[in-house]
Amino acid sequence: MSETPPNTLQYRFDGPEDAPVLILGPSLGTTWHMWDRQVPELAQQWRIFRFDLPGHGGSPAHPAGSVGDLAERLLATLDALGVQRFGYAGCALGGAVGVQLALRHPERVASLALIAASPRFGTADEFRQRGVIVRTNGLDPIARTSPDRWFTSGFAATQPAITEWAVQMVRTTDPGCYIAACEALASFDVRAELGMVGVPTLVLVGSDDQVTGPAEARTLVAGIPDARLAVVPGASHLVPVEQPAAVTDLLVRHFSTAWQPAYEHSTGQTVVPGVSLRPLHAVSPQAAPIAEIAPAPVVAPPQAMGRPDPYDAGLKVRREVLGDAHVDRALAQADDFSGDFQELITRYAWGEVWDRPGLDRRSRSCVTLTALVAGGHLDELAFHTRAALRNGLTPDEIKEVLLQAAVYCGVPAANSAFRVAQQVIREETTPSE
Asked: pLDDT per residue over 285-302, tens digit each?
């Protein structure tokens, strides 16, 4: 075990030192202990490397705001240890890290398993809303509802010790790191790049997963050229915990038979010897993998060189700040009369101004709230209050902005603004049961 500097990750090894390295990546809110029941079997054949996400378990709280950042921290950790090539299995957020590695550093990845994963996890709104809840109420509401998301109802009812372990694992996570991980998932979208994943891939999903279920798994299989699907019956999101034997057997089968050799031209890479195939325990008929292979999608050609049109950047920022639902409504309501105005604000307000690096989004939200109070624009104040929460302002900080506005914009204007903001904050920060 080791605790590493901020640009790397806390990790532990299990298994023979001279065996090929197999990495097991955790999901959001879990620690490396989610893989405990896979390690004894896997460590007979591989050198198992597990890591904790920032602020999870005993890992130092150095937030990582993107999946790419997490992938680079993992590579920095492996570089320091002299590990050049490896197999990788990751669950949910850990799976996103695996896709990122396969896309950006294909020479490092010998084989890939994506568990309870997706090319895009829900909507950005869902994860940013979760960040607002945690920032306002702490992690307890998320922790208490984690078993509902992670396990089937039958498993949760018959395994109270594991259910309580799951709750405590989330409850003891650093809130800032959890929020940063939510932001990482909110911005993760590799749907257009799946055809460039060039390593043998197993996509594994629980049949009852309501978070990233079989539909998302089939999207991955359809997009990744050399991918196969395994559906495990009677399992939900944390399928390695709920059905450990089936998952272990599937991983052994996949990594024993689909380990891509190192590229000959990869100068400086350590070539891992082929993994010897040994007799496998019989996989339960219920958990037998169902293979589906589809051709890669057609990837659009790159745009011509030159200054990019700020519209695309503006639409991205507008969605990140205001939420997909709000932007979708605004664009859907546009017609021949108002469509040009929607394009104008997307391109110039959001693409030119909100996307400038001179102020962070928290600061821009403070300025925007003050300006809306001064102008009496209460409708826009409502959705920009939601945006301020998404951008990281706390309710107390929004209160301070409105108090400041009362002095410089007038008490009547601030009085109306407080009523609007109070209602929005109640709606946005009340945990759903």
From this structure: 444 444 333 343 444 444
152-166 burial: b if 16+ Cβ within 10 Å, else e:
beebbeebeebbeeb
Q: 136: which 2 tokens?
A: 């306002």
Determine the Cα–Cα distance for residues 260 and 255; give it in Å rounded to an integer: 10
* pLDDT tens per residue, range 39-61: 999 999 999 999 999 999 988 99
Contact residues for 267 (Cβ-Cβ < 8 A; gap 6+)? none
Contact between residue 55 and residue 173 where contact means Cβ atoms under 8 Å apart: yes
Query: What does the block give as tokens for 176?
Result: 């800032």
Beta strands in 55-182 (DSSP E): 86-91, 109-115
Strands (E), 128-264: 201-206, 227-232
213-254 pLDDT, tens digit each: 999 999 999 999 989 999 999 999 999 999 999 999 999 999
Burial of 284 (0-12, 13-18, 19+ CB in 10 A): middle
> What secondary structure, in 3-state letters, does 312-343 show?
HHHHHHHHHHHCHHHHHHHHHHCCCCCHHHHH
Quick count: other Cβ atoms within 10 Å of Cβ 385? 28
In Å, what is the CA distance from 164 to each residue of 149, 156, 167? 14, 9, 5
What is the token pair recorded at 58? 């005993």
What are the C-alpha distances in Å from 29 to residues 235, 247, 377, 407? 18, 20, 39, 43
Q: Beta strand 10-14 with 47-52: parallel, antiparallel or unpaired?
A: antiparallel
Interatomic CA distance for residues 14 and 44, integer angstroms: 9
Query: Residue 130 and residue 71: Cα distance in Å, rounded?
Result: 23
227-232/109-115 β-pairing? unpaired
Q: Are 48 and 16 in contact (CB under 8 A)?
A: no
User: How does DSSP assign 57-89, residue by residue?
Assistant: TT-------SHHHHHHHHHHHHHHHT---EEEE
Asked whether 367 and 408 are in contact (CB, 8 A), the reply is no
